[in-house]
Structure formats: structure tokens, C-alpha cells
Design a protein that fits this description.
The chain is α+β, with helices and mostly antiparallel strands and 210 residues long. The chain is elongated, with a radius of gyration of 20 Å. The protein contains 7 helices and 5 strands.
Length: 210
């Protein structure tokens, strides 16, 4: 299925012409990659939008990911980092769309974490959320039909994860989700150890207060 990414860039004043020339170069490189479908560039609109917005589309999540992690893209992004104040990337693919790949970074890497890393982080955040809601929220919903109380509980957990907990987890574990080149193995093992310790700690806490 079609996958895409949206890149929003706040360009430093006085560097607009350089940025436009660079954008044309990176667009040309993206067009050479397998699965490329289209690239649209939306310049700032005075009084309405002060960021450059780029929408790129590929024919599959795999082809999009191939472009995002490519050496040519990494080099071009590193070259142009001096031109912008901030670059935010949202990638619409992966096992948990919307919760990952939307990291706001000045590096603009935009690479999606592997599905197994996404699953580990979601479990780390979701388990204590569900347990806490079951303890504090569920008793007040006992008088409601099961279907209604389950819906309210799920609504609360999804809202907490989407707008509070997953953005926080992305920031805290960003070093592990998308590690800097050359540090992958050590960072990967350290992140796994921290997350597994988090699982154990959460289970121990809830067992103690059960």
C-alpha cells in the first residue's frame, strides 16, 4: 500500500534560496529510488504558515524506509542541517502508525524504528497504563454495561498513549529507537536491558499492591 512522509522545515532567515536549491537536489535523488511515486513542495504562506512542507509518496512502506535510511539521503540532510532551525518528519507506515516515525529532530533523520522495537516500547507504556486504569477507573464504571465500560477504558488508554505517553517515550528512548550511526550495537543492547528492567519493575510494583 502507498506510504508517505511529511517533512515540515523552518528555514533560517536569509537561507531560503539555498534551501530551495537543496530541496530540488534531494527531490531528484528520491525520484531515482524504487517505488517513488511523487513529491510535492509547499512553500511558506505569509501570515498562515512559516514552514516549508514536503509530501513524498512511495508505493510501499519498504520502499519508503529504503529512502529514509539511504546513505545519499543521510548525507544530503547532514549537508543542509545548517539551513534550518527545525525539521519535523512524520512517516505514515510501520506497525504502529502515528506513534513512531514522527519524531521532531533538528537532524531530520526520519527513519522508522524496526517493528520489534516499536512493539517493545508500546508494551512498556501500555501495560502500566492498562493496569492503572483498571485500578482507578474501572471501579467507577462497574454500573455500566461491559461493552460501554470497555470502550471508555480503551478510549482513555489510547488517548493517554497518543497525546502524552508515546511522545514522551519517543523522546526518552529516541537514542535507542533510531541510534546514531556507528553506535548501534552497544546502544541496542543497553536499550533492551533498560526496557526489560522496566517490564520487571512494573510487574513487581503491581504484584506488591495487588
Amino acid at each position: 500500500h502507498v506510504s508517505g512522509m511529511v517533512v515540515s522545515t523552518r528555514v533560517k532567515p536569509g537561507h531560503e534560496r539555498e534551501y530551495r536549491a537543496w530541496q530540488q537536489r534531494i527531490d531528484a535523488e528520491a525520484a531515482r529510488f524504487p517505488g517513488f511515486l511523487s513529491n510535492e513542495v509547499f512553500p511558506p504562506v505569509p501570515g498562515l504558515q512559516d514552514e516549508w512542507v514536503v509530501l513524498a509518496r512511495f508505493d510501499s512502506p519498504e520502499h519508503l524506509q529504503g529512502w529514509l535510511v539511504s546513505d545519499v539521503r543521510k548525507l544530503l540532510v547532514e549537508e543542509a542541517a545548517r539551513l534550518w532551525q527545525e525539521a519535523r518528519i512524520a512517516s505514515f507506515s510501520g506497525a504502529f502508525p502515528g506513534w513512531f516515525g514522527a519524531g521532531s529532530t533538528t537532524s531530520g533523520s526520519g527513519a522508522l524504528p524496526p517493528d520489534w522495537k516499536q512493539a517493545m516500547i508500546v508494551l512498556l507504556v501500555l501495560y502500566p497504563t492498562v493496569m492503572l486504569l483498571a485500578h482507578f477507573l474501572s471501579p467507577s464504571l462497574d454500573s455500566l454495561p461491559l461493552a460501554v465500560s470497555m470502550f471508555i477504558g480503551n478510549l482513555a488508554s489510547v488517548a493517554l498513549l497518543t497525546w502524552l505517553l508515546m511522545p514522551l517515550a519517543n523522546r526518552v528512548f529516541g537514542f535507542w529507537l533510531t541510534p546514531t550511526r556507528g553506535r548501534g550495537r552497544l546502544v541496542e543492547l543497553r536499550g533492551i536491558a533498560v526496557i526489560v528492567a522496566g517490564y520487571a519493575l512494573a510487574i513487581a510494583i503491581f504484584l506488591a499492591f495487588h
